[in-house]
């Protein structure tokens, strides 16, 4: 059976869910794996709930549809838990990574499934500290890498420099690299 990891991203317009989903697909390819990363488009606007999707495999990926049964769910905005069932159709034992400043029990109580591995990180605070803006996508990539081991942190950093180097200053790139590293180090698993 081929290795296939399916990741569903939940965020709001402007938080970088699309960028994170596509970057992770590119990182997979850079590691010699097969990868896809794409958003779900609709009438999104700044602040509206959006989804992104990433597939990582050791064999060619022939699916080109939204991910209905994710192995991993990444939530960039904890307020989505009030209106979106982020665990909808998630596989049993799925890894759920949430950007939050709440404790694990409070977050777990908001999820529709308790049959998940819950990871928590305050990605917004990390982004504010390291980048100066509340855009949690790059810290959430660091948390994802640590929680799943799906890709190597070194490859993520190289691809982030490559992608961001085309449009951002070195200060912004360095801030994002620090944010990824901090989230990688600070993400914790909630023990029920």
Overview of the structural elements:
The chain is of the alpha/beta class and 192 residues long. The protein has a single domain (4-189), classed as Pyruvate-ferredoxin Oxidoreductase, domain 3 (3-Layer(aba) Sandwich). The protein has 6 helices and 7 strands; from the N terminus they run βαββββαβααααβ. It has helices at residues 17-30, 104-108, 123-130, 137-148, 153-164, 170-186; strands at residues 4-12, 34-40, 49-57, 72-75, 94-99, 116-121, 188-189. It has a 7-stranded mixed beta sheet. β5, α2 (104-108) and β6 form a beta-alpha-beta unit. α5 (153-164) runs antiparallel to α6. The longest helix has 17 residues, at 170-186. The mean pLDDT is 93.
List its traits:
192 residues; alpha/beta; 7-stranded mixed sheet; 22% strand
CATH-defined superfamily:
Pyruvate-ferredoxin oxidoreductase, PFOR, domain III
CATH overall fold name: Pyruvate-ferredoxin Oxidoreductase, domain 3
Q: Please identify the top-level CATH class.
A: Alpha Beta
Count of beta strands: 7
Percent range for β-strand residues: 15-25%
Q: Report how far the terminal alpha carbons are from each other.
A: 31 Å
Structural class: alpha/beta
Reading the helices and strands in chain order gives EHEEEEHEHHHHE
- Provide the spatial order of strands within the biggest beta sheet: 2-3-1-4-5-6-7
Number of helices: 6
Task: Report the major sheet.
Answer: 7 strands, mixed
| Number of individual domains | 1
Mean pLDDT: 93
